[in-house]
């Protein structure tokens, strides 16, 4: 079976949540030291890269978890999930993270933009309820035009899918606009589609497409 690569953002979240502690070392041996290890799939399906299905395990426990023998009762997914939760509680207590703050570290919320002399685009993405996002966008084209630039805006709510993508579409009569936003740690990649392809959803020339870089908050 071919193995889908774990998206970079998902991988970073898995590694930072546990701070490279193995939840089986902690759950079985009360050992919360940093370990060399790998990301394992709880359901043993290498293509299920949902964050709830991924755990960082030390090499020994990864091998132990993956080798299920009929003679002995192997580690069960719900047992491992239990230790994962215990480990996160332990880490949150040590790092003094308050109970109100979700365990999931939000690497997504932020302002993303690109800017040139003639055109600009920015998208603000706010993560809420785990995997839902509120997206607001503003783009300009023809910034140096004496008649003033053409404008486009976006405002929608969507969810992040398993491939770290946000999708949204809007129909005006029989015309369809759709946007796909792929999330990375420090940027987003945006693709737009128009059906029919001459359909103008924004002002002429306006686009959110391309690579938009995450802006640092000050
Ligand atoms: Zn371990």
Write the layout of secondary structure elements.
Layout: H1 8-18, H2 23-29, E1 37-41, E2 54-58, H3 59-66, H4 77-94, E3 110-115, E4 119-128, E5 132-141, E6 150-159, E7 165-172, E8 175-183, E9 187-195, E10 210-214
Antiparallel strand pairs: 1-2, 3-4, 3-10, 4-5, 5-6, 7-8, 8-9, 9-10
The site of zinc ion has 8 residues, from helix 2, strand 2 and helix 3.
Describe this protein with a few key phrases.
single chain, 218 residues, alpha+beta, Lipocalin, two-stranded antiparallel sheet, elongated, binds zinc ion
Structure description:
- The chain has 218 residues and is α+β, with helices and mostly antiparallel strands.
- The protein folds into 2 domains: 8-94, no CATH class; 110-214, Lipocalin (Beta Barrel).
- The protein contains 4 helices and 10 strands.
- The chain has helices at residues 8-18, 23-29, 59-66, 77-94, and strands at 37-41, 54-58, 110-115, 119-128, 132-141, 150-159, 165-172, 175-183, 187-195, 210-214.
- The strands form 2 sheets. Strands 6-5-4-3-10-9-8-7 form an 8-stranded antiparallel beta sheet, with no helix packed on it. Strands 1-2 form a two-stranded antiparallel ribbon.
- A hairpin with a 3-residue loop joins strand 3 (110-115) and strand 4.
- Helix 2 (23-29) packs across helix 4 (77-94).
- The protein is elongated and about 75 Å long.
- It starts with 7 loop residues before the first helix and ends with a strand.
- Residues 22, 24-25, 35, 57-58, 60-61 line the site of zinc ion.
- Zinc ion binds at residues 22, 24-25, 35, 57-58, 60-61.
């Amino acid at each position: 079976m071919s193995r889908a690569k774990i998206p970079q953002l998902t991988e970073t979240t898995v590694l930072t949540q546990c701070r490279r502690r193995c939840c089986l070392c902690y759950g079985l041996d009360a050992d919360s030291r940093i370990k060399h290890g790998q990301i394992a799939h709880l359901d043993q399906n290498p293509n299920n890269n949902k964050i709830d299905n991924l755990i960082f395990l030390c090499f020994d426990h990864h091998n132990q978890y993956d080798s299920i023998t009929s003679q002995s009762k192997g580690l069960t997914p719900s047992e491992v999930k239990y230790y994962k939760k215990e480990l996160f509680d332990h880490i949150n207590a040590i790092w003094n993270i308050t109970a109100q703050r979700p365990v999931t570290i939000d690497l997504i919320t932020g302002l993303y933009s690109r800017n040139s002399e003639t055109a600009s685009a920015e998208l603000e993405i706010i993560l809420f309820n785990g995997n839902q996002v509120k997206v607001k966008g503003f783009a300009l084209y023809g910034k140096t035009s004496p008649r003033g630039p053409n404008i486009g805006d976006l405002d929608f709510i969507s969810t992040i899918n398993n491939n770290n993508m946000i999708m949204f579409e809007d129909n005006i009569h029989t015309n369809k606009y759709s946007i796909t936003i792929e999330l990375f740690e420090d940027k987003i990649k945006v693709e737009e589609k128009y059906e029919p392809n001459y359909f103008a959803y924004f002002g002429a020339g306006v686009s959110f497409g391309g690579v938009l870089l995450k802006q640092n908050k000050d």
